[in-house]
Amino acid sequence: MLATGPNGAGKTNLLEALHVATQGFSPRTRNDRQLIRFGSEAARVAVNGRRGHAALEAVVKLEAGAGKHASLNGAPLRAVEQLRGELTTLVFTPDRLGVVKGAPAARRAYFDRALGRLSPARAQLPADYGAAVAQRNASLRRVAVGASTREAIAPWTQQLADLGSQLVAARREALALIGPAFVEHAAAFGLDAAELRYDGEPPTVEQLEQRLSRDLERGLTGAGPHLDDVLVLAAGRDLRSFGSQGEQRLAVLALLLAEADLVTARRGASPLLLLDDVLSELDPARRRTLAACVAGCGQALLTATDPAMLPADPDQLVEVRAGTAR
Q1: Half-sphere exposure of residue 44: CA atoms within 13 angstroms, side-chain side
Q2: Strands of 194-199's sheet in order across
Q3: Residue 176: is it exposed, middle or buried by C-beta count within 10 angstroms (0-12/13-18/19+)?
Q4: Which domains does the chain have, with CATH numbers?
Q5: Whole-number average pLDDT of the chain
Q6: Long-range contacts at 278-281 (CB < 8 A, ≥ 24 apart)
Q7: How many CB atoms lie within 10 A of CB 11?
Q8: How far apart are CA 173 and CA 125, in angstroms?
Q9: Residue among 185, 191, 192, 193 nearest 292 (CA)
Q10: For residue 199, what are the β-bridge partners?
Q11: How deeply is 324 buried, as exposed, middle or buried, from its count of CB atoms within 10 A (0-12, 13-18, 19+)?
């Protein structure tokens, strides 16, 4: 599906609504109040479709000051996050370039989300590790002000080392899964010798205890996978520092398509692809490459200001004008 219209017509809003309805959150903001129309106190997004031979309906309701509620096929969900376990949506927006050009935290967050999609049983691992880091940091600060003793830190050090080692292993496994497909898609876009490399080692109790004095001074845990990075390389160059914006864009697209391939293979159903303003910065050859990839990836929605930007006939063309789609 291709959604076209002038800038500011509402194309990105359409894409955002699909993401909210299938994932329970916006790719643009974590402030749900921004998703409700000005002057209104509530919003509702519903999508209908099919998964295999079964009908499917997902509904997300937002109410100012009352949080979000979701249902799937009429059955209320305990939390909107459950949608992510049932439906997979992958999104590209211009700010997704931060996955490559941004700080390490952006890449950690991206690959941790990918880990959850590829291995749902370990989806909670990054949050559990983050909670252990927060507890250890709180314990460090209590010791620093004389409200506790160093012995109180030891249990959190052990838990952090255990969970941190699991998280590093899980991230490396996710990279090993994504890596080959990423290399293939990157090469198709002309990004040669692409590579994903994990930059970090599993934390150990010994390592954490050796730097305990420094951690006490800072009130922060200074080692562990919460500080690691994933290097996105091409021809040996770190694209964060030595890649053009065009190369960074191609790397993000290659990552997205690689994950789509894996999700399809592991879950038996293709994810929904949402590609916002992805064509405008690609040359004609790479537009054709992307169009061919998307055609084989299941259902996708692309946005563009001009239908001619897509070098193929879309299965459905949607015109967006002044917030109305037809």
Answers
A1: 5
A2: 194-199, 229-234, 237-238
A3: exposed
A4: 99-245 (1.20.1050.90)
A5: 95
A6: 278/92, 278/253, 278/302, 279/304, 279/309, 279/310, 280/304, 280/305, 280/309, 281/245, 281/246, 281/249
A7: 25
A8: 14
A9: 185
A10: 229
A11: exposed
Task: For the chain, state the CA radius of gyration.
Answer: 22
What span, in angstroms and rounded, lies between the C-alpha atoms of 100 and 191? 14
Instruction: Look at residues 84, 95, 108 and name the one whose alpha carbon lies nearest to residue 248.
Output: 95
Instruction: Identify the CA nearest to 182 among candidates 267, 123, 287, 99.
Output: 99
Query: Which is nearest to 18 in space by CA: 8, 9, 28?
Result: 28
Let me know: does 167 contact 132? Beta carbons within 8 Å: no
Pair of tokens at residue 252:
């993000």
pLDDT digit string, tens, across residues 79-92: 999 999 899 999 99
pTM of the model: 0.91
Task: Give first-to-last CA distance, the chain, whole Å.
Answer: 12
Residue pair 56/73 in contact (Cβ under 8 Å)? The answer is: yes
Q: Please, what is the angle between helix 125-144 and helix 154-188, to 10°?
A: 140
Q: How far apart are CA 28 and CA 233, in angstroms?
A: 26
The pair of structure tokens assigned to 110 is 């991206």
User: Across the strands, what pairs with 237?
Assistant: 234
Give the DSSP letter string of 203-270: --HHHHHHTHHHHHHHTS--SSGGG-EEEEEETTEEHHHH--HHHHHHHHHHHHHHHHHHHHHHHSSP
* Structure tokens belonging to residue 8: 């500011």
pLDDT digits (tens, 9 = 90+) for 190-236: 999 999 999 999 999 999 999 999 999 999 999 999 999 999 999 99
The tokens for 254 are 């290659």
